[in-house]
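User: I'll paste a sequence; please echo it back and then give the predicted structure.

Assistant: Echoing your sequence first, then the prediction.
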Amino acid sequence: MADTSDIRNGLCIRYNSDIYKIIEFLHVKPGKGPAFVRTKLKSVTTGKVIDNTFPSGRKLDDVRVETHKYQFLYPEGDTFHFMHTETYDQITLEKQSLDAPGLLKEGEVVSVLINSEDSMPLSVDMPASVILEVTHTEPGVKGNTATNATKPATVESGAIVNVPLFINEGDKIKVETAKGTYKERVKE
């Protein structure tokens, strides 16, 4: 059993007869009244995100998880195939258990949370950022840089990311996986 002081990003808890992963939290101590913890919980079975507030000191039923490194092999419809990097065991996961499936390219190594009790995969933690090649984008219009102008670009995984006007096809860019936003251009 854990309580609200143990809450951190990535903690898996059993709540309302489902398993949720905490993706955001904020400890709040108002001037009047008791402290509480405001959280965003993502269901590992459905992918649905809910907001919830726990009173400070409340007991939580945490789920013991193990983290293993898996390599992404290929997508097949709404399922994604992964291979354990050490044992070469293969697993398939549903699209909703991934945080950013559009930014996943073949060969990418991710962390998979596995329930210690029944060895079932719960969710996939992407790296903080990924490097992807731009496969299609319109050329930037010269002189259109009065503000932070951006344009849509399709990357090798098929996702569309807004990039600055100086990015061209064939450039490699670093994309932040949590928000799906452009970070920087990568020189080789």
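The chain has three domains: 2-62, 65-125, 129-186. The chain has no helices and 16 strands.
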